[in-house]
Every structure is written in C-alpha cells, then in structure tokens.
Amino acid sequence: MTMATTITAADVKKLRDATGAGMMECKAALTEASGNYEEATTILRKRGLASAAKKAGRAATEGLIGNRIAADHSSGTLVELNCESDFVARTDDFQKLIQDVLNEIDKAGDAAGDAWLTDPNGPVVSLIKPVIGKLGENMMAPRLVRYAGKGYVGQYIHPGAKVGVQVEFTGVSGDLARREEFTTLVKEIAMQIAAASPLYVSREAVPADVLDKERAIYRAQVEDAKKPANIIDKIVEGKLGSYYKQFVLTDQESVRDSKMTVKDVIAAASKALGTPVTVSRFARLRVGETAQ
Predict the structure, then answer these.
(1) Please, is 211 exposed, middle or buried when counting C-beta atoms within 10 Å of its C-beta (0-12, 13-18, 19+)?
(2) Are strands 152-157 and 62-69 parallel, antiparallel or unpaired?
(3) 208 falls in which pLDDT band (50, 70, 90)?
(4) Is the dihedral of CA 146, 246, 195, 191 positive or negative?
(5) Long-range contacts of 113-117, Cβ-Cβ distance < 8 Å, separation of 24 or more
(6) pLDDT digits (tens, 9 = 90+) for 53-98
(7) What is each CA distance from 159 to 64, 112, 113, in whole angstroms?
C-alpha cells in the first residue's frame, strides 16, 4: 500500500463514529476500500445488512412504543419498534431510531400504514437494517397508528413505554380543548384504555358476527336448563351485558371510580363543559403483542 492510502487512526475513528461499527471492522473496510471513505461505508453497510439477515429469525419481543403528537392535538402517531432485549431498547441508538421512524411517518402522511411500515424496500425497513448491524439484535416495526384531521387526539404512554394509547375525541372546539375539565377527561380515558384493554368504543361498534358468536356460546351454556325460550333469551342478553362491561369502553367500570361507568364519566365532563364530547376511536399498543 502506498503512503497515500495509509489508514490512520483518525480515519478509523471517523468511520466508526459515523457507522457505529467496531474499530477492527472499520480498519478492514478502509483497507479493502483503499482508504475511500464512501466505499468503506458501503462495505460496512453491506456487512450490516448481511448480519441483519442472519438475525432476522430471532424473536423480537422487547422494544418500545414511540409516540408523537401535534402541538394542537390535530394529529398523533404511535409506532411499535421491537428488538430482542430491553437493554438494547434503552440505548441511544434505539431511541434515535424511534425518532427517525416517526419522522418518516410524518413525511409519508396518509400513505403511512402497516404495509408501508413493513415494506422490505420501504424507508422504515431501510432505516432499521443498519441499526440491526450496529446493535447486533433483530429489530422490526410491525405496526403503527396514525390519526389526523378528524378530531382532538390525546395520548398516554405508560411508564416504561411498553404500552401506548391514542384516543380521538369529537365535539371539541379550540377553546374547549384548553379547559381543565377536558384535559382531565382525555387523560382519564386514555389511562382507562391502558388499564382495562377495551376492544370497542361503544356497543354499536361491536361487529354483528362477534355478537352472534357470543350469543351462540351463551345459548349453548343454558340450552340444557329446560327453561322457556323467553327466559333463555333474557339469560343470554344478561350474559351479553357482562361481555359489554368487559370489552366496550363506555360500558366499562371506571378505573378511577368504580361507582361510575366510562359513559357516566364522559357525560359528567360533557355537562361541565356545556357541550357533548364523544370518543370516536382509540388504539392500544402493547410491546410484543404481534409476536404472540
């Protein structure tokens, strides 16, 4: 090798700082590239991608829920980013990756969805691959939730960022959104969803086929009781009421006050605010759910 292509410690440090690869790997890449920084970076990226492919079969059930919300609460995003260990989830590189992924979602806007998120040739997968190479663990972003332009968006991220909730309200004007009664309601509803894991906003939102299946199960449980049909119907509807209390947000018992349902909590807040406020939709993401 000529003096012009001698690899200096400064060259190695520059490449290491930029890529996060080990010193020996950086020196080897620079040597292979005859000192060309861009080519050495490409070599390391290719090796990072190769190591990522080897790790792709390993379970990524740890990670964090990343979140971002507009200052005026007109839009919000939750994204799940998985890795193999909680140790890696707490690293600066992983935290930066979450912000980079959220930036890409912001850029994509309405085009951002789960298929876009997991597209092997998409921007998010391209962001993740070099970090897999650097940190040595399999990673993936399996799902996101983005609400925009249809109401007031609130969020709650449970300490530890393993559970994230996003909830959208309608009937909220600019002045109303700043009132304490409303901001308290937003926090309470989001924490309710985090704690009680409802599946539906209201009874009307429960799909008909789900109700039919539940009714069939309850009917089978009592059909041997030799009771009149009208009595069996009442028993079935009573059991369905218990289903609503478990899985429908507005029917759930408030985690703050067990004497109230969530519907009561919303009604009380609406009365205090002088206008009806409703929850239009919500999402609850828990790290690792999609891997189970």
Answers:
(1) middle
(2) unpaired
(3) very high
(4) positive
(5) 113/144, 113/146, 114/142, 114/143, 114/144, 117/79, 117/141, 117/142, 117/143, 117/144
(6) 445 555 667 999 999 999 999 999 999 999 999 999 999 999 999 9
(7) 11, 26, 26
250 pLDDT exceeds 90?
Answer: yes
**Region 143-170: what's the mean pLDDT?**
95
Find all residues with CB under 8 Å of 118, minimum gap 6, and list them. 124, 125, 140, 141, 142
Which CATH code for domain 62-201+275-291?
3.30.479.20
pLDDT tens per residue, range 98-116: 999 999 999 999 999 999 9
Nearest to 241 by CA among 249, 231, 251: 251
Domain 3-50 is of which CATH architecture? Orthogonal Bundle (1.10)
Q: What is residue 238's three-state secondary structure?
A: helix
171's tokens: 């009937």
Q: In sequence order, which ranges of the chain are alpha helices (DSSP H)?
A: 9-19, 23-32, 37-55, 86-89, 92-108, 114-118, 123-135, 174-177, 180-196, 208-222, 229-247, 262-273
pLDDT at 48: 61
Instruction: Break the chain into its structural domains and give their ranges.
Output: 3-50, 62-201+275-291
Distance CA 291, CA 139 (A): 12
How far does the chain reach from its first CA to its final CA, in angstroms? 54
Asked if 281 and 248 count as a contact pair (C-beta separation under 8 A), the reply is no
Per DSSP, 142 falls in state E
Higher pLDDT residue, 259 or 229? 259
pTM attached to this predicted model: 0.76
